[in-house]
UniProtKB/TrEMBL annotation:
Belongs to the iron/ascorbate-dependent oxidoreductase family. Gene3D superfamilies: B-lactam Antibiotic, Isopenicillin N Synthase, Chain. GO terms for molecular function: metal ion binding; oxidoreductase activity. Residues 207-308 form the Fe2OG dioxygenase domain. It comes from Spinacia oleracea. It comes from the Eukaryota. The gene is LOC110794214. Keywords: Iron, Metal-binding, Oxidoreductase. This is Gibberellin 2-beta-dioxygenase 8 isoform X2.
């Protein structure tokens, strides 16, 4: 175990030792402790959309706002929203509870009953399960929580006397309930802007308890350069709403190049997931993104994933369809199988219909 590592940190260095050795990656000396991972990456502002325009008195302004959301989803697959209706104090509260739970000892977090949080098995995750190369390495830990674990149970004293996590459940519930309204609102706009007439589509497929909330923590990585906090991936959902702190590190692919997202304290980030790309027949883009580890600062983010139930069938809204239809359960299983076999997700390209 690395002598500098905190007892709450997962044993990254120990676990990735052989991978570092194989790739000749040696610890940086004190004179070279800056990472080069971000050095050549362009920093760009994502499209910024003011959601207060959705309730403007002028109908034209409301329509223009919807058009901007749809255009950003086609051209970038990513955008930022301000005046999104999530109170600042709720975001701060979420961050505070998240910091506390990650500060718990690693052995307790990874334990079978995960600090008595009564979450589904495998909710606490860290690192990459099967990295074959450096680009598949993730220097981060996460609680990936099915909202069903939080929504469907009566309030209980989950903390079992642990004051550090006593508010976590109610904070997650409040946060997720508020963010789910925003997620549904944006998803409904995207459905409407494709001219689809079934405007209840999202409500029929998704409910608050089919969604997921993921709390991410990226410990600093001072000793190695070229280390990723989260390996490149697309999200397996309709759309994701992300709240991040001000450290930065999120990058996405735009026009074939990695670009770095500049944090904006007023904004939430929205990105399109694979299910919207499949349903929209490739119109809305589920874009590859990653997080680079910071050499000095730890980083936190919270992601809300708008997901349907496992048996929901995803099929393009119009023919000829680029993808064969699949159930969300089938999609998730395929992703898990590919990660086990190849060390990374293959995703939607598995479901392409080759004409
Ligand atoms: O932490 C971030 O900025 C991104 C997180 C992310 O991509 C995810 O949880 O899927
Ligand atoms: Fe993601």
């Amino acid at each position: 175990m690395d002598r500098n590592a905190n007892i709450s940190d997962p044993p990254f260095e120990e676990t990735y030792k052989n991978l570092f050795l194989k790739h000749n990656i040696t610890p940086l000396t004190t004179t070279t402790t800056t990472t080069t991972t971000t050095a050549t990456i362009e920093v760009r502002d994502l499209p910024l959309i003011d959601l207060s325009r959705l309730v403007a008195t002028a109908a034209k302004e409301r329509e223009n706002c919807k058009r901007d959301i749809a255009n950003a989803s086609r051209e970038w697959g990513f955008f930022q929203v301000v005046n999104h209706g999530i109170p600042h104090r709720m975001l701060e509260e979420m961050n505070k509870e998240q910091v506390k739970v990650f500060r718990e000892p690693f052995n307790k977090k990874k334990g079978d009953n995960c600090m008595n949080l009564r979450l589904s098995p495998g909710s606490y995750r860290w690192g990459s399960p099967t990295p074959n190369c450096l680009s598949q390495l993730s220097w981060s830990e996460a609680f990936h929580i099915p909202m069903n674990d939080i929504c469907s149970n009566a309030p209980r004293n989950i903390a079992n006397g642990n004051p550090n996590i006593s508010n976590l459940c109610s904070t997650v519930k409040q946060f997720a309930t508020t963010v789910s309204e925003l997620a549904n609102k944006l998803a409904n706009i995207l459905v409407e802007k494709l001219g689809h007439d079934e405007l209840t589509f999202i409500e029929e497929k998704c409910s608050p308890n089919t969604c997921y909330l993921r709390m991410n923590r990226y410990p600093p990585c001072p000793k190695y350069s070229h280390v990723l906090g989260l390996m490149p991936h697309t999200d397996s959902d309709f759309l994701t709403i992300l709240y991040q702190d001000q450290v930065g590190g999120l990058q996405l692919v735009k026009d074939g190049r990695w670009i770095s997202v500049k944090p904006n304290p007023e904004a939430l980030i929205v990105n399109i997931g694979d299910l919207f790309q499949a349903w929209s027949n490739g119109v809305y883009k589920s874009v590859v993104h990653r997080v680079v580890a910071n050499p000095r600062f730890e980083r936190f983010s919270t992601a809300y994933f708008l997901c349907p139930s496992g048996d929901a069938v995803i099929q393009s809204y119009r023919e000829p369809s680029m993808y064969r239809k699949f159930s969300f359960g089938e999609y998730r299983q395929q992703v898990q199988q590919d990660v086990r076999e190849f060390g990374h997700k293959i995703g939607l390209s598995r479901f392409l219909i080759c004409n």
